[in-house]
């Protein structure tokens, strides 16, 4: 007998929800059973052209549909209650970053899902980008020696004109602002590569066009081993056509520069085991990429969802590369940043 398909429900059919629908629908072992969205036009189009059941309320979908898993693509302020209900139904869950708006909430959810052996994953795509995976591998074998400093950056033209104070993205308590929306990616990548920092200092949040949330973020991270990291994120930089992640890492054996398209590593001395010469070495994404059967926005977007399916199919053998606990660690750093910023602002009067 053929293995039954994994039945998935998608909650939220905005930009990311539709992207995830297109990707997960391409998986031969998956059936998208239902979609939840409050927009009548979106629901009518899904029903008419894709012949998928639609709901305006996630609770009704969870009650009426026989599902194995959910993809949660709603504003982060809504995700905690949705994920609680999914857990009670015994469903595996993938949730868009940052997961929830509280490290404590996502940690609680992690404990619940782990207790029931349910796959839980947060959508931090950098962990599935082949360049950053290669960076991780180089750091694991200490190609740069002891790491002294690093810098994690992200730029985009997301907000490049005056913003009205309406919609969930313009309100921090609903998950809006450059920290939750963009800096979270850089923070999770930092945690993935270097571990969670032991202290956060000098956090600055600046407004350019937004009225109630930050557009530019900077902060410094301290580690007990003496390593120092810095973060700079700007989603109001019109000089960038697409969102761009950048890394700069300085170690005792050399230096590494990377973005999602390639990396350059400078070594003081050649490393024959790694086939790296002294001086500069370059690797592009075309030399590093892993093949995926369906491409939307980037290989990493397909890779993360196919990984989610693999984790479900393997019944615990394949471990999620980005669990709820990983998401909670990123939220913990974000909370440290907000506290630090409040202290800095208070000190400056």
Quick recap:
By secondary structure, the protein is of the alpha/beta class.
Q: Could you explain the architecture of this structure?
A:
- The chain is an alpha/beta fold and 349 residues long.
- It folds into 2 domains: 6-124 and 297-322, NAD(P)-binding Rossmann-like Domain (Rossmann fold, 3-Layer(aba) Sandwich), CATH 3.40.50; 127-290 and 332-344, Dihydrodipicolinate Reductase, domain 2 (2-Layer Sandwich), CATH 3.30.360.10.
- The protein is built from 10 helices and 14 strands.
- A hairpin with a 2-residue loop joins strand 11 and strand 12.
- The longest helix is centred in the C-terminal third of the chain and has 24 residues, at 324-347.
- It starts with 5 loop residues before the first strand and ends with a helix.
Helix-strand blueprint:
Blueprint lengths: L5 E6 L3 H11 L4 E7 L3 H11 L2 E3 L2 H7 L4 E4 L3 H13 L3 E5 L6 H13 L4 E4 L6 H11 L6 E9 L22 H17 L4 E8 L9 E7 L5 E7 L9 E8 L2 E6 L2 E6 L11 E6 H4 L10 H15 L10 H24 L2
Parallel strand pairs: 1-2, 1-4, 2-3, 4-5, 5-6, 7-10
Antiparallel strand pairs: 7-11, 8-9, 9-10, 11-12, 12-13, 13-14
Helix pairs in contact: 4-5, 5-10, 7-10
Q: Please trace the helix and strand order, writing H or E for each element.
A: EHEHEHEHEHEHEHEEEEEEEHHH
Rounded to the nearest angstrom, the radius of gyration is 21 Å
Count of the domains: 2
Continuous helix count? 10
Tell the overall outline.
globular
Distance from N terminus to C terminus (CA atoms, Å) equals 70 Å
| Proportion in helices | 25-40%
Q: What average pLDDT do the residues reach?
A: 94
If classified by CATH, what would the architecture of the largest domain be?
A: 2-Layer Sandwich
Determine the structural class based on helices, strands and strand pairing: alpha/beta
Major beta sheet, specifics?
8 strands, mixed
Overall strand count: 14
CATH superfamily label of the largest domain: Dihydrodipicolinate Reductase, domain 2
CATH class of the largest domain: Alpha Beta
Low-confidence stretches: none
């Amino acid at each position: 007998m053929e293995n039954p398909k994994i039945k998935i429900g998608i909650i939220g059919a905005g930009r990311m929800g539709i992207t995830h629908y297109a990707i997960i629908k391409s998986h031969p072992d998956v059936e998208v059973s239902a979609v939840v969205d409050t927009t009548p036009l979106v629901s009518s189009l899904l029903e008419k052209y894709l012949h998928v059941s639609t709901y305006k309320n996630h609770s009704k979908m969870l009650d009426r549909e026989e599902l194995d898993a959910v993809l949660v693509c709603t504003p982060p302020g809504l995700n905690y209650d949705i994920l609680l209900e999914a857990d009670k139904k015994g469903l595996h869950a993938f949730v868009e970053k940052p997961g929830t708006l509280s490290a404590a909430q996502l940690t609680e959810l992690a404990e619940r899902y782990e207790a029931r052996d349910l796959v839980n994953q947060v959508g931090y795509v950098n962990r599935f980008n082949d360049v950053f995976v290669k960076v991780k591998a180089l750091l694991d074998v200490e190609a740069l020696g002891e790491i002294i400093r690093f810098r994690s950056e992200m730029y985009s033209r997301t907000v490049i004109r005056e913003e009205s104070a309406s919609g969930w993205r313009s309100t921090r308590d609903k998950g809006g602002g450059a920290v939750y929306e963009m800096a979270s990616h850089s923070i999770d990548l930092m945690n993935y590569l270097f571990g969670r920092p032991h202290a956060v200092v000098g956090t600055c949040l600046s407004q350019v066009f937004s009225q109630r949330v930050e557009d530019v973020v900077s902060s410094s991270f301290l580690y007990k081993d003496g390593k120092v990291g810095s973060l700079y994120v700007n989603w109001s930089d019109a000089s960038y056509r697409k969102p761009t992640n950048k890394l700069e890492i300085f170690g005792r054996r050399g230096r590494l520069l990377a973005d999602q398209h390639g990396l350059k590593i400078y070594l003081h001395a050649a490393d024959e085991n790694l086939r790296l010469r002294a001086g500069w070495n370059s690797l592009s994404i075309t030399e590093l990429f892993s093949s995926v059967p369906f491409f939307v926005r980037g290989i990493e977007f397909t890779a993360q969802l196919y990984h989610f399916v693999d984790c479900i199919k393997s019944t615990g053998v394949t471990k999620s590369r980005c669990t709820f606990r990983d998401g909670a660690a990123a939220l913990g750093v974000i909370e440290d940043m907000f506290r630090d910023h409040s202290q800095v602002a208070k000190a400056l009067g």
